[in-house]
From TrEMBL:
Pfam family name, one: ABC_tran
Record bears the keyword ATP-binding: yes
Domain ABC transporter: 4-234
Domain of life, source organism: Bacteria
Family assignment from sequence similarity: Belongs to the ABC transporter superfamily.
InterPro entries, A to Z: AAA+_ATPase, ABC_transporter-like_ATP-bd, ABC_transporter_ATP-binding, ABC_transprt_ATP-bd_su_PQQ, P-loop_NTPase
Provenance organism: Limimaricola cinnabarinus
Protein name: ABC transporter ATP-binding protein
Gene3D superfamilies documented for this protein: P-loop containing nucleotide triphosphate hydrolases (3.40.50.300)
Example of a GO MF term: ATP hydrolysis activity
Keywords for this protein: ATP-binding, Nodulation, Nucleotide-binding, Transport
Amino acid sequence: MSGLAIEGVSHDHGARRALDAVSLRVAPGQFCALLGPNGAGKSTLFSLLTGLAALQAGRIEIAGHDIARRPRAALTRLGVVFQQAALDPELPVMANLRYAAALHGIGGREAGRRIDAALARVSMAERARERVRDLNGGHRRRAEIARALLHRPSVLLLDEPTVGLDAASRAAITAHVHDLAGQGGLTVLWATHLADEVAPGDQVAVMHRGHILACAVARDIAPEGDLAARFLAMTAEPA
Ligand SMILES: Nc1ncnc2c1ncn2[C@@H]1O[C@H](COP(=O)(O)OP(=O)(O)OP(=O)(O)O)[C@@H](O)[C@H]1O
């Protein structure tokens, strides 16, 4: 399948099991929230999806390419927005994106076209000439998302992309990325510990202590509509 497939992935950090037989499928064009408290294993899963850590057990396919057997093919289909900023704050958005495009071997007019398109997708076209340092937190994150779209990935990973943002910026980024999936056809895996970033029609994988506890449409996990309360109940630690 051309979305994202994770099958039976287990991972140990020394004696500590961080992931235990994790399986998850995200269909093409679907937005999936990976919802887990601190220590659930989200970062470990992301490091496997991005090829930063080697798979110990199980299988990962990105847009139909097995990450262990065809890492290059798999990783070129993947866009990643890391928690840490990937843009140079002293440079304008445009210069940052030209550099990022060059890293993908994209230059000249094609780079200009891709940058314009990527910025337009996150409503940032008018900020191309501003220095990253001068942008507010929400616009910085949107510029990071534009960077991740330059090579036209089919799967986009975002690792807690709203950390440190105010409520309005959080809502704007969440809406933009939902649009990238719904209208743009991107497959999105969005790691968060905030249930209010999930729309009722989103797929949600609830993760806790290295396990996927539930994977379904949000309104099926919390039929009364209170996903935050349901999430807390599912992941509550004994007092
Ligand atoms: N390098 C490491 N060495 C040892 N244990 C680790 C290492 N990285 C993660 N762990 C442990 O693995 C488990 C999963 O951690 P991970 O960082 O993947 O979770 P997370 O859901 O991303 O949490 P957070 O939101 O706090 O980053 C935790 O128990 C953590 O302490």
